[in-house]
Amino acid sequence: MEQKELFVFHALLAEVYQKAFGEQLAPLSHGKAQTLCLLIHETTGELLDHKMLHSFAAAVIAGDQTAESPSTATLAILAQFAAGDNALGNGRHEMRMGAYAAWYKYRSRALTRLLAA
């Protein structure tokens, strides 16, 4: 994962964590990872694996650029959750144009903030 992508993913994960738990981003325990997946599912209608979220959070906190990057679908689901979008019926299984729009909008805003700073 490139440095700018890691920055954007860190910002997204921190926003998701803040929205879910009202705390700053910290390593995800097993229970918190499961709770986060449930909250994401209730909001977006999409399922994410708690082990995958745990691994991504650990990599982001450590700043590990060699860790496996999340898929665009995963990023879109996290961005939908951060935005509070209820996307039931508009899931990743419907391969149509715009399925990942939430992620690209989030990425664009985050990079704009980075460049403005």
Task: Write a structural description.
This protein has helices at residues 3-21, 30-44, 50-62, 72-83, 101-116. It contains 5 helices and no strands. With 117 residues, it is an all-alpha fold. The radius of gyration is 13 Å and the shape is globular. It has one domain (3-116). 64% of the residues lie in helices and 0% in strands. The model has no long low-confidence stretch (mean pLDDT 87). α1 crosses α4 and α4 packs across α5 (101-116).
**Global mean pLDDT:** 87
Report the major sheet: none
What distance lies between the first and last C-alpha atoms, to the nearest angstrom? 22 Å
Name the helicity range. 55-70%
Shape: globular
The helix/strand series, from N terminus to C terminus, equals: HHHHH
Uncertain segments: none
Per DSSP E runs of 2 or more residues, the count of β-strands stands at 0
Q: What kind of assembly state do the chains in view correspond to?
A: single chain
Summed up, the helix count is 5
How many separate domains? 1
Return Rg in Å.
Answer: 13 Å
Secondary-structure topology with pairs:
Blueprint: H1 3-21, H2 30-44, H3 50-62, H4 72-83, H5 101-116
Helix pairs in contact: 1-4, 1-5, 2-3, 4-5
Any descriptors?
64% helix, 5 helices, 117 residues, mainly alpha
Précis, in short:
The chain is built from 5 helices and no strands.
